[in-house]
Amino acid sequence: MLSHECRGTGPAVVFIAGLGGLGKFWAPVMDRLQADYTVVTLDHPGSGNSPRRGPQTIPDLTDAVLEVTASLGIARFNVVGHSTGGLVAQTLALDHAQVLDRLVLSSTWAAADRRFRDLFEIRRRTLIDAGLGLYKAQGALLAYPAHLYDRYAATLPPRGRGREGDDPAEVAVTAERIDMLVSYSRADDLHRITTPTLVLGAMDDPIVPFHHAEQLAQAIRGAELTVLSGGHFPPTTQTDLYTSRLRAFLETPVPATSSLPS
């Protein structure tokens, strides 16, 4: 069984993490919502405490979410997908719309452009050539704005450490997940999404620049677009604001025409 967490009462909200695949990423947001919602998250297959079960693919991650919700007896839910998790959320909305009430796409994208592909190729080479420590340090340098870096970023690994002590399985899964997120896109299908949608993007996010949020909002009919700040991790760096935006969206009545097909 996949490692997951479920707490709180009320309408179900499922949170899907990004590249790292760890459900604990969502802890600050879940803490603030659990009094009014049933909040659920999971470690992706091959990440955290969830066993690997084959190649890393977005469809498999989508199935993993559905397996967890089915095991909890949750027939319908709201979904919040961050970064790579946003690709999973898009797939749920396209292929399993019957289980969704609302869709939130957070710091994510419709399709990789050249800059995006180059960025993740550099990150992949850092992972393979320089090791996990420098790869993670590079990720923090990119993810957090300068004024928040001291607060959130871990210290750099010692010089000369390289790949010493790295877990080969973690390296392999991370490299696969980078390949997965760069190559997967349902951009041509997004116009078919009818689930009420909120797109959240940060103006100071250098990993997924804000124009990706604009593209998503334009592609999905009726999608709301909200501008945030806090780099690539607003759920961590702007938790109260982020949670308030989620609440406002989840509690806004859905127009009667929102579920009509295109």
UniProtKB/TrEMBL annotation:
Task: Give the AB hydrolase-1 domain ranges.
Answer: 11-234
Q: Does the keyword Hydrolase apply?
A: yes
Any idea what this protein is called? Answer: Aminoacrylate hydrolase
One Pfam family assigned to this protein is Abhydrolase_1
Q: What is its EC number?
A: 3.5.1.-
SUPFAM superfamilies reported in the protein's UniProt record: alpha/beta-Hydrolases
Q: Which UniProt keywords apply?
A: Hydrolase
Q: Which organism is it from?
A: Pigmentiphaga litoralis
Task: Give any GO molecular function from the UniProt entry.
Answer: hydrolase activity
